[in-house]
């Protein structure tokens, strides 16, 4: 379950391992009761969701209905692995914009993008406020833009001198 203040996104994992979405329900006691009735006897069900600002109200509702429920710490929620060695395909429009840009600068921009993604994910997982995450990543991005600009200017000067 993905629990928000107003809604709960629900998915089930079948015995064969197949995952299927049941959609989104209102985050209301009656909607939760109706969902559990639809899924079957509570004592045969298990639920889990990520701990967050919505507290343990859903946990108490589910356990009252006989459902075994686990509230998981955000740092323990698995995320899809991202291969930082594999660069996504560069489309024709981006390739055209990159014409004439030295490889050194393209590589620097790629490393910056990877580092900023990691920083954003790390701060979000730590529960930092969105505005603070945006400010921190924005400041680091500005530093990367400055460094890329300096490298680009130096490369342009070398090209003019040659």
What does the model show?
The protein is built from five helices and five strands; from the N terminus they run E-E-E-H-E-H-E-H-H-H. The strands form two sheets. The chain has a three-stranded antiparallel β-sheet, covered by helices on one side. A two-stranded parallel ribbon has the order 4-5. The chain is α+β, with helices and mostly antiparallel strands. The radius of gyration is 24 Å and the shape is elongated. The protein has two domains: about 1-75, no CATH class; about 90-160. It has helices at about 30-40, 55-65, 90-95, 105-125, 130-160; strands at about 1-5, 5-15, 20-25, 45-50, 70. It is about 50% helix and about 15% strand.
Helix content: 40-55%
Instruction: Write down the domain tally.
Output: 2
Unreliable residue runs: none
Which structural class fits the helix and strand makeup?
alpha+beta
Largest beta-sheet characterization:
3 strands, antiparallel
Spatial strand order of the main sheet: 1-2-3
Q: Counting H and I runs of at least 4 residues, what is the number of helices?
A: 5
Average pLDDT rating: 81
Number of strands: 5
Compact overview of the structure:
Helices cover 49% and strands 17% of the residues. With 162 residues, the protein is of the alpha+beta class. Helix 4 (103-125) packs antiparallel against helix 5 (130-161).
Question: Can you tag this structure with a few keywords?
Answer:
162 residues, two-stranded parallel ribbon, 5 strands, elongated
What are the SSEs and their pairings?
Elements: E1 2-3, E2 7-13, E3 19-26, H1 29-39, E4 46-50, H2 57-64, E5 68-72, H3 92-97, H4 103-125, H5 130-161
Parallel strand pairs: 4-5
Antiparallel strand pairs: 1-2, 2-3
